[in-house]
């Protein structure tokens, strides 16, 4: 029995003084998430039918939707803080993107349109009620906006998902 106790104490003593060891824990990068989602602090407003603006960031990609009234109407989602945005998914019945413009802003005042077909997307898909874009380069943003460019009464926006860290 004494031998077992001595062995346990000897093993426990190996490795030196724990008070002199330094932590080697490294900071892990944040996981990408939907920074536009209401549950993550996103606040949706609209130039028309603002009472239903929340439908575009409620987590539901089917069913209820927001729709504009005239060309130029838009829906804006303000994030809870600035994020490095890496991509987007827009659920809409206008999945050819000729009826909408997707824009981002780092100040809530000046918006830049995403060029889906050339320049901004490393990978892009359109169709089946969805537009997706993974950016070549992350962009710092505090707001995302979808502007109706044509057929305002016919365009339905179901959900805007913005991936960021």
TrEMBL record:
Record region (Disordered): 15-42
Alphabetized PROSITE patterns for the sequence: FA58C_3
Entries under InterPro entries matching the protein: FA58C, Galactose-bd-like_sf
Residue ranges occupied by any F5/8 type C domain in the UniProt entry: 18-165
Lineage: superkingdom: Bacteria
Leader peptide range in chain numbering: none
Entry protein name: F5/8 type C domain-containing protein
Source organism of the structure: Alkalilimnicola ehrlichii
């Amino acid at each position: 029995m004494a031998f077992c106790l001595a062995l346990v104490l000897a093993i426990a003593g190996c490795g030196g003084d724990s008070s002199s060891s330094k932590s080697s824990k490294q900071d892990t990068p944040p996981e990408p998430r939907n920074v536009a989602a209401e549950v993550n602090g996103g606040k949706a407003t609209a130039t028309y039918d603002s009472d239903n603006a929340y439908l575009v960031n409620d987590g539901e990609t089917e069913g209820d939707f927001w729709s504009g009234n005239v060309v130029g109407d838009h829906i804006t989602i303000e994030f809870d803080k600035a994020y490095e945005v890496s991509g987007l998914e827009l659920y809409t019945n206008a999945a050819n993107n000729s009826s909408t413009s997707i824009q981002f802003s780092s100040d809530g005042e000046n918006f830049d349109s995403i060029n889906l077909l050339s320049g901004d997307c490393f990978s892009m898909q359109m169709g089946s009620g969805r537009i997706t874009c993974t950016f070549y380069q992350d962009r710092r943003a505090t707001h995302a906006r979808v502007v109706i460019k044509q057929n305002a009464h016919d365009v339905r926006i179901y959900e805007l998902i913005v991936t960021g860290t």
